[in-house]
Each structure stands twice: as structure tokens, then as C-alpha cells.
Amino acid sequence: MKRWLVLFIVLIGLQTLARAETSPPPDASPPAASPPAAGASAATAAPASAPAADDRVGALEKLLKEMQAQYEARIAALEREVAALKGAPAPGAPATEAAPATAAAPAPPPVTEVAQTPPAAPPLAAAPSQSSNYFNPSISAIGNFLGVAGSNHTEDLPAASLRESEVSLQAIVDPYMRADFFLSFGEEGVEVEEGFATFTSLPWGLLAKVGRMRTSFGKINTLHLHVLPWPDEPLTTVNLLGGEEGWIGTGLSVGKLIPMGDVYSELTMQLFDGEAGDLFSSPGSRDLSYNGHYRIFSDLTESTNLDFGLSYGAGPNGLTDTSDTRLEGIDTTFRWKPLRTATYRSMNIRGEYIRSRKGGELDGTVNASGWFLSAEYQLAKRWFAGARYEWAENADDPTLHDDGVAALLTFWPSEFSQLRGELRRRNYSNGETADELLMQLQFAIGAHGAHPF
Amino acid sequence: MKRHVLLLCALVLLAAPASQAWAKVKIVSTLDDFSSIAASIGGGLVETEALAKGYQDPHFVDAKPSFILKLSRADLLIVAGLELEIGYLPPLIDQSRNAKIHPGNQGYLDVSSGCDILQRPTAQVTRAMGDVHPFGNPHYWLDPDNGRVIARSIAAKLTELDPGNRAAYEKGLADFETRLTTKDKEWKAKLAPYSGAKIVTFHNSWPNFAKHFNLDVAGQIEPKPGIPPTPSHTLEIINLITTDKIKAILVEPYFDMKTPKYIADKTGATLLTFYPSVGGTEAIKDYFALFDADIDALAKALGTSAS
User: What percent of chain A has pLDDT above 70?
Assistant: First the structure.
């Protein structure tokens, strides 16, 4: 309402200003007296006799000049206000477009609020000072530093590394879709970890994504490195999903909401190119891999909920022309977070089981499986303790398996930085037992992403 | 272009079979406060539901998939805006499969527009200041004058979505405004004896409340927005309370009471759990009860420690 009023006044002011250019301006700007009153007095002062017409014109002229002077004073005041506001970020800029869960900076601890600045003028419909920036995507960068102590000859991580720098670019494309890019600058170079368009306005409860994305196989595989509850990937990912990166596919994903009362359920079908890191390799360039995921989520009480997922994926493994690898997965997460103390106490327990059946090996199909179980408990607003057990066979040789235990402590100085220590023992199939300390520092700048769930 | 929009609208309408013709308008709001106001305007014509609970920190709501389900069925989504919901709402809207409630569409209503928003940063902000809200303080509904603006926005939106019931919404709004005027006089009268009184709060949630009821927020227990109390800052607050003879410390229900209790013990100031939203306790059933509860508690605290 106020905005319209201001706009209206500015418009009237501009009109009078245009007129002022053709007529001489009044000699002095009169005090902001009310023009109707001044006009009325001028009009009544004019004698109503013979040269009345001339006098009336004169009175009208005077009235107009007074009004003009007044508007000019108002415009000057408004201009000062606009100038003052221009220094500040434009109010009313779109605050709503933001990241999907993966974009999030390190997530939990509660932090937020308002700068201690003096109250500014009420909102004007001010245009942003750099209108060309207006539709720029939200940009953020997340640094992931890892320091490692102890000895490990099987997985030799460097003593110190900036393991990943992730840059994300996210924006609404048009009324039908949004786009998200996650570029990962690692030790080996740049990679588009994800880059996809999401069609958000489809009918029949559908949501489609096209591009390169982390596949919906289980829960952990969908998460970016920086939102994992550990500084490292579990052995299930490393041994059974083609290595640390997990399964990233290029293609199409369609998710359908199948609500069952108040229980959330969603079926996701994905179709990808037949090449995916070390996991899939297609002898013919037109071979495809596919994945299906069914997720059920239910609030058990106000403060507890259960997430359950089934996954099935398959793709060519390149051992023979027709051989493929099939993957089956079960994932479950139990969360506890009393709402009133939500920012101080919470707990997550999660587990995942993966089985890989790799066809085309010399002795037929090779079955290998693995699982992990992990828990995090929030001790205080900024402190989390965690533990993990992991066990996984080698996808190529199930007679060999690795296992490990880890204890974690995480401190969040703010919502945008995170310090984490992990004490890890891994027993490798080659007989080595490695004890290590992993120290991780993560820091995020730029747009505030959504918190992962 | 326009044709496509029309086609899309037609598809969406087909997918959600004629929900608007006779069914109630399904409203989902992020905060109970807006649901409460919408319910008093729409009465039996609307169905309201809030995502966050009144005793929950509105900045930190989990993006639970069950919320996606609620949003997928909504005709209208009411949000506080000013980035209050930035941590959870955008991915929920994207996954809702409900084009109506996307920002910019008819079923999305940001009720901050038109409200008196305080503390818009006038200079460059950085996160060294804590987690700042670059669009101003998002706790604006705690000023009854803003409540009036919010009610008008909601009534206008309901009329737009459901023009057949215009008269009912107009009457609902008029009744709400009349009641608000009466109650506001009552609230102001209760706090009038303490005009200009200084208070200390935990978080910077109360500038609009303080402005409307002529209180002076002298300090916050948080050293910076969102940063937990530190010993040195706690000491400063204790000194502030002692020298300025501040009588009340207001703490939102979702913050840890340990430091506030310590400060209250050291200074003798009254410690109040102060509710920023409807649903904070069972007794706080609507927008009016929210101010009733807060103002009665505050008046009592300021009154007793004065004697």
C-alpha cells in the first residue's frame, strides 16, 4: 500500500517536474504548507468583479506554482531517501529461491539473526542498484580440508589436502524448472559433480530431473561429501559402488509421490548412460544403466521419525558384451529430535545394506555385500558425538572383506563452519590394520543453502 | 508463451480435480500465527495447518518429507519471508509437485510485504556479525499493527482464491480488526505504567514488540545473533542489568535456560519464558491469546519487582 502511494507521489512529482522545465521555477521554496489552504485564500482574495477572469487565472497560476514548489520539495526529500537506501541491499529482492538439500553448508547448529543496525526507512519500491545482477544464480563455495595422522598403506591419504572445493550455482530457470550445478574442484581437477534441471511444475505428482546427478541409490549415495556425517565415505560405497565418489549418473530421473494417508511414499525411476566411473562401463555406447528407489517416511511421534528405502540398480559392467552388475540396497534412518530443544539435543541412527551381483566373471556371477551402522548424538548446541561400524566384501572377490570402526566428534562454530575429528581403525583384506586420526575443517561462503535432512 | 501457461494451468487443474469449487481452501503456513489469523478470517471456509510448532525455533525447522505431503495438498502457502524459512522451505516447495504454491504464483503469500520491518541493514553485512538477515528482522508479526497488515493480506488473498465467498472474508477481516483494536487498547493499557522500561532478551526476536509497546531492549544474552552466550558477554549483561536496574529477562521457549537463570540469580531480575508464536503453550490458542499471555506475564514481572 505504502509502496503504491510513494510511487503515485513520484509519478505526480515527475509530471510537475516536466512542466517546471517549461515554466520559470518559483523564486523560493515555500514551507510545506498545505496547498489547498493557500489556494483557497488566494482564490477568495481575488475580487469577483469585471476583470475577475484575469484575476482568477492569476490565482490559479499562483496555486499551481505553489503546488509545484511543494512537489519539488517532496521529490528532493524522496531523492535523499532513495540515495540513502541505495547503499543498502535492495529490499524485496527475492529471498525465496534457494538450494536443495545438497547445497547446504554444513548443517545443524542453530545460528541466525539480524544485524544490530539502526532501523532504516520503510520499504520503497527501490530497484536494485545493479539490475544486471538481479537474476544471477545463488552462488556458494564450500572448502573441505582434511588432515590425516597415523599410517595406512592400503588407502594412502595425504597428510594434508584440500580434498574438495565445491562451488554451487543455483537458480530458477523459468516458470517450469530450476537448475542446480555443483562443481567439484578436487586434487585431480575439476568435475561437474552434479548439473541438472528440475521440472517442478509437472502434473500427476511427478518431479523430473535431467542432467548429471548423484543417483538415488540408498541414502548415503545421494549426499555430497560435505554433508556426510563423517569425513570419509563408508566401505560400502568404496567397495560396492565403484569407489569413493559413489554412483553418479547422467540421464533422466522421474519421481512420483504415492501418498498413503499421512505416510510419505515416493517412487523414483532413473535412466542413465551406461558409463559411470568404475561401477559401470558399456561396451556398446548406447547401453544404459537404470535405478529404482522406493522411499517411505513416517513421523512416529512429533519428535521421532523413520525413513526407509529400497533400491535396485543395474548396468553393464563391460566384462563381456552382455554382462551386467546388479545392485540391491536397503537403507533406514531413525531420527529423534524433541522440537522444543531441537537445537540442543538430537539423535540419528542410520544403516545401509548393499549387495552387488557382478555377472560375466570367470566363475559366473559374483555376489558381494556390505553394510554399515552409524549413530550421531547431539551433546550441546554445537557439539555432536558419533560412531560407525562398517563391513564390506570386495565386489570382485567376496572371499576378501574389509571392516572398520570409527568414533567421531564434531564442533560447529557456526552454521557455516564445521570442525570434525574421526578416530578410525580399518582392517583390510590384505591383512593390514590401520589406525588413523582424520581431522576435517569445512567452511562455507555465499548463499545460505537449505539444511540437509 | 501465454498459451503454454494456460495449458499448464489446465493440466494442473485437471490433476487437482476442482478442489476450489466447493471444498475448503487448504492453507498451510510456516508459522501458527498466520494460520491462526487465516482461521479467524476464513472460519469454516478454510482449513489451516502450520509446519512449525509454536515452541520450536522458527529458524531451524527440519525439511521433513511429511511436510512435502502437506504442501502437495495446499491451495495456499503463507510464509513469513525475509529468509526466515530459507533453511528448510525452498526444497520442500520444489518437491511439493504443487505449482500453485511456488513463489510468484497465486497460492504463495509472503505476508511480510506491507509490514513495518525493522533493522534492515543499511551498510554491508557479513557473517562476522552472526547469521544476519539481510532483509530485516523477520519477527515482525509480534507487532499487532503488523498483525493487522498480515490479516488484510490474507483476506485479500482468500478473496482472490475464492471470490464466491468475498462477503464472508470481508466480514471475517472486519471482525478480526475490530477485536484487534479493542485488544490492542487493553494490552497497551496493561503495559502503560511501564512505558520505556528496559528489558533484556535472549535473541533479537522482539524489536517490533518493543517498538509497539514502548519498551527498550537494552541487550541480548546472545553476543551476536545465533551465537551462544559467552562468559565475557554474560558478565556485560549482568553489569548492564545491575546498573540500569532492568527487571525482566525474556527468553524464547526453545533456548537453553542455563545462562539466563544464572544471570537472573546474580541480578534478581525476573526470568520469563516469552512466547513468540501461537501454540507456544496449550493456552496460546490464537493470535490474541499470544499477546494476552506475553503481556500479562511481562506486566506482572515489571510490576512485582518494582515494589
Answer: 73
